Amino acid sequence: MVDHIPQTVTLDGRELAALKARLQNTDRAAAESDAAAAPLRAALTLLTKEADGWLTQGPWSVTDKAKAGPSGNIHDYVSQAPYWWPDPARASEGGRPYIERDGQKNPEVLTYTDRVYLEKVFRSAYVLALAYYYTDDARYAAHAARVLRTWFVAPATAMRPHLNHAQLIPGINTGRAIGIIDFSQAYASVLDAAVLLAAKTTSGSGSGSGGTEGWTDADDAGFRVWNRDFLAWLVGGAFGQQEHAMRSNHGSFAAMLVASIAAYVGDMEQVAREVAFAVHDHVPATITADGRQPAELVRTRSWHYSTFNLLALTRLAMVADRAAERLEEEGQAKGERLWPSLYAAVEYVLPAATGGRDKWPHADLQFEQFAAADLVRAAAAAGHTASQAAVSKLMLPPDGDTWPLRPAPEQLDPVKAPGQRPGTAKPV
């Protein structure tokens, strides 16, 4: 029996429910004959192993840092620009103002614990919520609730809903518009996590009138208020508008972030505006007719940034699909579809996605073939014929593949500090 359909933002709730039903198939003979379910079981093993690891970590708070940032308020998020380093010529001045080294991450940024903890919040909440959804193990739900409540809801520990001091550069500024990408890279997954925690299921794991063990109606309401305030800051503030206007991966992620939050809080008009902006303005300005992404190809890690930009845009296309489904259920017009605007760019990366470094005619300091796996699979699921033909030739991420249970693109090759590199991938 198909489970309750969660109203997820990016992930397809119907697909999640169907996957859960297959994993929980009590007909042993039928389950064993379902060869296609083997990747699901393997992915579940990976997922629950990671979730078990998160059970002993956190929760984290923006107030855990040693001292407040430029504003003096400990509840304000603060991070440092990753590619900016102390200027050796100014050693006596502490290297300030800093100088840029594109693609080289300064390990000093790790001293700003907000960014370090934020990544843990985002990842743990997502993994724990997914593990809860598929297993109904209340431990996962309870800890995911603690993580989200601590960072976003509880007055004593919550972050204020703005990013005025993200990716500051010592000696130059106290925050930048492009610091919004600290959130936009993975925050949409957190919204799906909150939906999964709040959804009651037919398994009987839901409690009360709203949500699972630990994630209360008050938590859910508080989290939605936080997101409405954050959305208002993104749409109405100077930083949000500057980031949104950028014709690069920054603009792509900004549009995806706004659309995701708008969908979560039920502002479907804002979602429609973001999709229309992408189709008619942003994509034509950032992707050429032959699929090149000029702003990303000039980077020292051209492959990384080309796939990175497409990650944002393919996720935005999925948000648009979910919004269209919701509007159709309500008897309204579906709105525009973003996918056709992206296929040329997907086709441009396909040769390297299936053939490796020799098929990528641009410079890249650290080529990781598997970085394209998720976005190609997402395009294939959307009906793109060339991507469908390429799926069997893709490289998987080296640490295992959980795509079968979370079929939406994730960043598979995060930029590492010097000396930290992913392992070798294996074919699908």
UniProtKB/TrEMBL annotation:
Protein name: Alginate lyase domain-containing protein
Organism: Sporothrix curviconia
Keyword Lyase: yes
This protein's UniProt keywords: Lyase, Signal
SUPFAM superfamilies: Chondroitin AC/alginate lyase
Organism placement in taxonomy: Eukaryota, Fungi, Dikarya, Ascomycota, Pezizomycotina
Domain Alginate lyase: residue ranges: 61-360
Record region (Disordered): 397-428
Domain of life: Eukaryota
